[in-house]
Structures are given as structure tokens and as C-alpha cells.
Amino acid sequence: MRLQRLRPNEWRIHVFSRGAVALFVGVLTWLGVLEMDPSTYGFLILGFLGYVVLVWRAARRAGAWLDWFSLAFDVMALMTVLQLSGRTASPLIVLVYLWLFAKLTMNVRQADAATVYMLAASGLLVLWLGTWGDERWGLFMSFQLLAVVIFVVISQTLLGERRRNERDPLTQVLHRGAGLERLVEKMKRNEPFDLAFIDLKGFKWINDTYGHAVGDEVLSGLAGRLLGCVRDQDLVIRYGGDEFLVVGPERKLKERLARLFSEPVSTSRGRIQAKGDIGVVTWEPDNEESLDALLARADAAMYRMKYTEPREDPHEARGGRPQRA
Amino acid sequence: MMLQRSGLQKWRAGVFSRAIVSVSVGLFVLFGIIPMEPVTYLALTALALLHYVFIWRMSPRAGAWLDWVNLVFDLGMTFALLQLSGRTQSPLVILVYLWLFAMITVNARYGELRILVFLSALGWIALALGALGGPEYASYLAVHTMGVLLFAFTSLMLMGERRQGQLDPLTQVLHRGAGLERLAERMHKREPFDIAFVDLKGFKRINDRYGHAVGDEVLCCLAGRLLALVRPQDMVMRYGGDEFLVVGAHGTLEQRIGRVFSDPVMTSQGPIRLAGDHGVVSWQPGQDLGLEALLARADAEMYRMKMPLSSA
Q1: N or C terminus: fewer CB in 10 A for chain B?
Q2: Assigned superfamily of A176-323
Q3: Which of B102, B175, B208 sits opposite A154 (nearest CB)?
């Protein structure tokens, strides 16, 4: 379970939308729609301004704590507003649902179901604490429980869509954008890992000889094999047309990938022997290497393998040709 | 403006979530949380069941009108529920927002702002009409006008995410999945178009000689050139690593594409000359050619261009 970090430009939207809500609650208080004292409202606004200043100062260099802090702030603020504006009779109940919707849109980018449950639970907590003390509280909460359950059910559609959008449609492994984003997150967590750069040899030739449909089958077959080589928490990324990145266990990835090209791939046009180059490098948390530098190092390791391995056939030097098995 | 047709899976989710709502409203009526006559509840449930029997019978062969019927039914049902369960005091007001959330998730799949505005307006109308005649109507309306505005504002993030999700991260043209989906929709609209298969030659060699970073620059530049060739309503998609599909105006695409490889590409390692093949075929609504067959023909057209060159 993890809140996705907001990016600096998203903090601006985060503060802006809360400012809009604060302004509107002010107008409603002024018009007498909410049974809230103007002085209470003034105190709430002061608290909100303090929060804005903190976020403003901290957003650029803060760690994950800021996201959790803002979640706690939201829960407290919503709860207070509900308590002060009529509890179960408050017209602002709807804000809790809008808040859930906004959190889901901005903080659950990687379709993590556990985070959705956590958010739904904090929504229920807000509704519970915010309306605590009314007579019809039990009946009210039973209704809100139902509404939050429906909210979670509807979210599943969105989560499914996000999960699909992270994948390359052809091979069903992570596409480049989503994969590199996750790789950066993995580096931030400071655990060592191995990174392999895999470049298929003669893919152009397969496409030209058998047609694009068969080329696609070869790619899907290889992607499936790569997924079979690594553990659940590892990453397989389609980096380019015929290039894959694999992130796997430290110092063990090379042997896991050793038999990748040993068997031919079954396609609708028979079995095709795919060939490729693999460059494996290890990333350690303490050598402070950036993503670009790491990728360049893996790329270089792959080229070392490409030019040092024994060549069976003169074509190999230029792109190489796979054989039909 | 069009509602996206829901697949069978989504229909099931729709039926399921509406059934949860109706069962729990029944429980609330039973326990007296909602001031509604049991008879009225039974009548509403019977109406909803009839509606679903109708949809069940029609959905295999119905056109887009069925989605619109469904939308109107939802609105009517929301109106009736709010009016019968306490108008401005009704605890069921939340259901309108949940409905909006569900509709945005299922529809507006390409991030169309028009659909967002349209659905928000419908939600607002349901909230306004459903509570008409209740006490403290003005303040109710003020609160929910803000509510719907906040909903629309929050959905803008989702719309932006969806628009971005359609694009290939490197070249910022449509990626294969989204592109083929849109192409299939375009064929449903029955307007003629030209489709070109563009295949970069020697991309592997560029990657091997200058490194992948320069190869990426070449792809981005080529994608930009292809985008510049066509009109805003046309499509450019990255079909594979170094293959692009271009869908453009009927009859003019061939000559536009011809110039795409004429100038060298400026990269960080100096200008690089590009070469490539393309195959253009026309699609007309009368032809009854499926998507797969159309792509195979464009592919074959490209190889006809490629083969005489490579044997020479």
C-alpha cells in the first residue's frame, strides 16, 4: 500500500482545489447556509493557510511523509467541517466523496487496490468522526457504508483501465514510460538490483521474411519467457521495438537469463530461433548512479557482449540473421 | 458527441451496481430511514426490472441509441428517487455523484472534455430537479452547484491522464493499442480514408552506430514530420519499433508521404540521412474490408515498394 508521490506541479492543483473549497465554505457561512460561526471559520482558514505555507516550502524536497501528512490534514479538516456544519444533516457530506474521487485520481496512479481500500477506510473514518454525536448516527452510517462500497466497486473499472494502460498492448509487459517510472521508484527505495538490457538480433529480418504478424508472435513469446525468468516483484519492460529491460534479483539475473535464447520460439509459421544480446549490470544504492547513467552502462555492457562473442557466420557482424529451426 | 458503447463486461458491472443500489434502498425503506411508501418502492423496482429485461433483449444487436435510452432511464430514476425520499433532505443525493463517477469512468475514454461537460450538466439537472419543492432549496442548490463544479474540476486530471495514456511515451503520437481502436471506430463511421504503412530502413544500424539515444531522437523527429503531414482530425500512430501508420484524407496521402524521407534529420550527433518504405492503400465504406485485412494490404503494398529496390 503506497500513496503515489505528487509531482511539484500537482501540489499546485492540490492547494488550489482546497482553496476553492475553503472559499466556498466561507461564502456559504456568510450567506447563513451553514450553521457555523464566522470566527470559527476564521480559525479554520488560519489553519489552512499554515498548511499551504508548509506545503509551499516543503513540496520540492520533501519525502513521502508530506503525502501522508496531507492525507492526515485532509481527514482532520473534513472531520472538523462536518462537525461544525451540522453533522449528519450537513450539506457538505458530499465533499467527502469528492475528496475520495480526487485522491483516487491523483494518488493511486499505479492501480494499487490496497491503496483504494485504505482511502475508502479513511473516508469512512471521516464520515464516522465528522457526524459523531447525532441521534440518527447509526442509520446515517449504514447508508454511508453502502455509498463507500459502491464507490470502491466503481473504482475497480478505473483501476483495471490504469493497469492496462501501463502495459504494452502487444506483449503485455510494462511499456517504456510506466516501466522507467517504476524503475526510478525502485532506485529511490535504495535496494540493490540487477538490470539487463536485451536486444533481439535480426528482428527486422524476421519481420521482412515472415511478415509483421509473425514478428509480433516472436516478441510476445519472448516477453512471456522473460516474465517466466523473474519473480513477481521484478520488472519486465519493453524498452523499444525489439529491446527489453529486465530488473531482477541482485547478482542472480545473469544466470536466470542465460537460457533465454536456447529454445526456438513457436509461431504460426513454425519454430523460429531468435537470437539476441544481453548486457547485465548491477545497481548498488551507494554509488549514486542516475537512471540515464545506469541505462547507458547496461547498453554498453550489451555492446561488449555483441562484439566479443564468437561469430558463427559472417552476417552476424551486421545485425545477424536468425535461423529457422 | 458520442457515448462509448459499453462492452458486455461493463453492462454486467452496470446491472450489478444498480442492483446493489436498489436492494439497499429497499432495506432503507424497510427500516424507515427513507420516508418512502413500500408500494412506491415496489413499483420503482418493477420498472427497473422491466428496463433491464428490455436491455437484455436488445443489447446484442442494438445501436448507440440503447446507451442513450439507458442514460435517460438513469436520469428519470434518479429524479423519482430523490423526489420520493426527501428531496433536499434525501440521503440519496450521494448516489448522483456516484453515478457521475461511474459514467465518467466508463465513458469519455479518450478524455473528451465535451462528454465531461455534458455529463456534469446532466448530473446537475438531476440534482436540481430531484430536489425541486424541498425546503431550503436555494442553499441546497448552491452546495450542489459547487459539488458538481468540484467534480468536473477533479475529473480534468483524469481526462488529462487518459489523453496522455493514448500516446506513445517516446514519440507522443498514438500508440498501437489506442490507434487501432480509433481506426476501427473510424471504419464504423463509414467515411473513406487513405492509410499508409511507413517503415524506417536501417534503424537498427542507426541504433548500433550512434547509440539508442540518437535512435530515439530520429524516431521523435520522424513522428513530428508525419504529424505535420496530416490534418488535425487525421491519425499518426507508432505501430511498432520503427513502423508508423498514418491515416489521412482520401486520395492525397500518397503524395504527402512521399517527401517524408527527403531531408536528413538533425540529431545531437549531427544530421542523419533517413531512408524508408511506405505503402498506401485506400479504404472505402462499401468494400467490407476488416481492420486486419486492411493492415495486411498496406503491409503488402509496402513490400511491393521495398522488394524491387532491394533486388536492384
Answers
A1: C
A2: Reverse transcriptase/Diguanylate cyclase domain (3.30.70.270)
A3: B102
